[in-house]
Records
---
Amino acid sequence: MIGFDIAGYLIFAFITTITPGPNNYLLFSYGKQYGFKDSGRLMLGIYFGFLILLFSSGYGIAEIMMKNPTIGLVLKILSSGWLFYLAFALSKISSDFSSVTKSKVGFSQGFFMQFVNPKAWIMAITGASAFMPHFENIHINVFIFAFIYGLIGIPCMISWISFGDLISRLLKSEKANRLIGLVLFVLMLISIVMIWI
């Protein structure tokens, strides 16, 4: 018998991973800009960075950090700064692929972004608090928790990249690209505001 609510956990992991947030906005814009095939490094960076957050949350490290007011404030400031930069970058989506080749985001950017991504922290801590398995071995509990969450995340990330890739094929005009960039910019600004509420 599995020592936790696996059905509830699967639903929680899917909903929190598929819904909009900084990672998914970035994957969408990257898929739109560079296509599905060129997005693997970014996706792996996000995946492994988030996996570390999941493990640290499972062992209680992340929760201890978040309860420290100084660390919490620093994280909010870093998150806001990073998301504002990301919002600005996403607003510059263009249909001219050659002009932005040098600004590709790779594994390391996706990886380190997780540590200033407020949604990723909330997902990891909330998931660990509500759905950690209750076997005798803490290491098995943390592994199951992180592995399942990570497994659910893969198709969700692929979906956002594919959606961006599809949009790039359907919308070729510069006006449409500017509109999408503006929408992404506003959504990221909303994400920043939500950090401070």
---
Amino acid sequence: MLICLVKPSKISKFMRLFLSLFFFAFFLMCFSVNSESITLEEALQKGLSVSYPIKEQMELLKKSKFSYISTIDLYLPRADLRATYTRTISPFSSVSVSAYSDTSRSSYSLSAVVSYRLFDGGERFAKRKAAYISYEKDVEILRSLTQEVVYNIKKYFYEALGKRHVVEAKRDSYETAKKIFDLTRTRYELGLARKSEVLQAQLRMESSHIEYENALAEYEKSTENLKSILSIKSNEPLEVEGRLEKPHSKLEKDDLVKRALELKPEIVLQEKELKRLEMVYKEKKSAWYPKIDAEVQHLRYDTNFFPEKRSDQFVLYLILPIFDGVGRYYTLKGITSEIAAAQANLEEKKREVELEITKAILDYHMSLKNVELYEKLVEEAKSNFEQSLGEYRVGKGDILSLLTSEKDLSSAKERYVSALTQANLALFYLEKVSYLKQY
């Protein structure tokens, strides 16, 4: 862009006013016109309602619930209706012929049987309990997925919110650089500044305008992750709304570790798995115990198609396994080893959780210190810029020092925004690994 270095006419003043209004309108268009603003709470509500992993796990949870309900059949009696037809090929050796005292080769029978298992060595209890524990495991998986979705929404939201504040900082920097350029050009027209100073101010103004445009592009790109997790189409505009503040949560490591070991879904899930394996062990152990079944039979038999002879019986069965190989013994040994492995896995998960919390809380405290440092840096850079601007206005300072101080102020603001963003993200991650907030 070429800048006229002579006394501006009314037309050039009109053009400058027009350009200023154009950039202001462009900024408003980018941030408000045809845009949907969304807060963090709204994003969480929408994200949890449209999350496909959560929907999938809820369906699996229903399946586990139905599987558990179906295990009640093991405790209910069983009723069967049986009909048979027998055609004797060799009547002299036929049991049916001698039984019916008839020379007919055809016999018919109809029976109704009601049976119930009185004792099974704990097999039914173990199966039903294992099914319920599997249901509880799916509940914990759902809690874990919900926690992961909440963290991702918060992360993407605050990343976009930080980029938005960077845009505002770059816009302020551009406006300040433009004011310095106007001031320098006015001083040049009055003969108080050199042409090189105007060119330097112009270069800084153009550079800050490029930074502002790049910040806008980065902000738009940062909203894509949020749009994706909220199931919003990429071509639909979305603006994040909220304040970017320093977090003030005071958290102690011991309290967080204790809470996580009690409530964190990953820990509870492994504990449920350990209990499930114990039920599997009891189920397999029931093969060593006898089975006792009771059965009531009503039997009709005859050589006619509609049998008339009847017999009513009550039968008590005792099934005692004496020898069926070595499978029962080694099956129990295998389950025992699996239980020991699950216990070791539980202890390893506890160790990992404690390590994650330790590292997360250190990162959180470090991020808070960075916020304090960059906040002081912004104050110092602002004071240095105001002093340089004041000296330049009265002709005591030079343009290079003024432009350098303005650039340092812009950089300090950007770093401060980044530090605030990282502090909030560190808090969200700490909440995740310690399961500090439940949804």
---
Amino acid sequence: MDYQTSFLTSNDRRNSFDAITKGIDKWWGKVDNSVGKLGDEFSIFFGNTEWRFKITQYLPYEKVKWKCIKANHVHDGLQNIQEEWLHTEVEWDIKQAEEKTKITITHNGLNNQLNCYEVCKSGWDYFLLSSLKDYLEMGKGTPHSE
């Protein structure tokens, strides 16, 4: 089963969508571009690790999909993970849930068959359920910093 999580925020769909397209550096880590349309690309960096994504679906304030087109994952103690994210997709669904916004994230291809699964699952849980949520709720996330 692919990684998936959801959470509710009191922030609206517009700000939630902007956080996962234009504000990635505010809750996840250092990026080289923000996302503004279909076909845009960006890389995120964690030390020697770089993942490059291309936007393959872009429905403002509803859905965005990132496809990993380059992967260089480096993590002490884990082997054969360098390209495990290559061709995986991170899918974001944003829906109105009464007075709140529900954000559902599915990382298609990130499953327990991958060597990095436990580390990546823990990382996503932190960056999504803590950092992104805090960024949306309080205006300040805790992105990775060098």
---
Amino acid sequence: MSQELLHQQKLPPILAYTLLFLIFISTFRIFATLPLESLHQSLSSFAIILLSVYYVFSLLLTVRDKKITRLDVLMWVFILVNFFAAYQGHAIFKQPYYYGIMAQRSVLLSLSGILLISLLRKGWITIQQVERSFVIISLSLLIIFYFFFLFVNPVKFTDMEFVAYSPIRGYRYRFQFALVIMLLFYSLFKVSHEKKNGYIAIVLLIIFYLVYFLQSRTTLVVLAFTLLIYFFRNFTLREKIRNTIIYGSVIIVAGALLFSLGYTSLYDKYHVLYSNVYNIFFGETSDEASSAVRFMEFNIALDYIEKNPILGNGFISNQWNGGWRDILGYFYPVDIGLLGNIFVFGLLGTCLIYLPYYFSLSMSRQVHSNHVFFKTIEYMLLFFFLSMFFSAVNIRDSSSIMFLVCLLYYFRYDYFGSGDLLPSSETVIA
């Protein structure tokens, strides 16, 4: 870091951490999937107004000084694609444009990433404070989620978004889990790169939560792919063989022990869940409602994609005429991943929606560092990217994705960029 930056005035710690807490809570929509929805609505609306006003003034200064960066252009494209989906909702389904914009307004929370970069560059907060805030918040969430699963019956919240029901899994909570997935990556990297074995306890707690409580097929599959990519990219052949033997043996022994003790119900449940997906994929019938519904949603999406393949069919608000459910029956684009994105944004919009990942890949390739927080952001973006093939997570997590892109940008052009490794700044219009 430059000496000039190090000597800039920092905010008092209590103010810095309060600000970071508000940024994380609003950007990652944490209160939206807790019994605090009214608080979430108030907080997110307040944050959207403040961020929009801040960015307009910031943009005026940026244009005046002719310092528009690729990140600015990427943010404009990302927001405009989402708002264009509101226009298509009006053009195709006659939904008033106002409803489409309001349903997509949370995309403006992405601007929190621009605000964070500005605070870091001014020296008002440090990246260490951002990292520490992330760890404290994500650990707190993990404790809260465990508390709900262990002591609070989800039947009490059956009319709320964060509780789902299926005949196989019963009632279960579906909390906003992105920060806890990030904590899993962070803890794994602390163990593998810094040899801080105390983080193994956190890893085991999160994995147990995912497997035993959450029971999300998509999350587990995508997480497995992400960790495999990390495994092959970051270990030598000798380390790969050693780790495969050690951890593979632990998993096999643990599985055999559970089977011998008669704990086979969880295995049976997962066997049914994944076999149903396999049956649907190969055109066979499924005895699970959620798999059959996905098949129905695929067919609905294909019919409309055929009519509007390039620009898509837009986004419909649940506040207008009952939303998708009253228009197309049981249909939610987020359920069907890549096809859902093509349905909403069209082929053109979907390609633009994936631009942040291409931008992130380009930046991460230019940084060679085992900095744990940097690698956590890098692999969380990979997790989001892979998730979008199975579930259109960008529709509900757009602010989280762009926030991480902004953090990666800060690492690439400021944190590492002030030394000999990379240039200290990057400007499109100079």
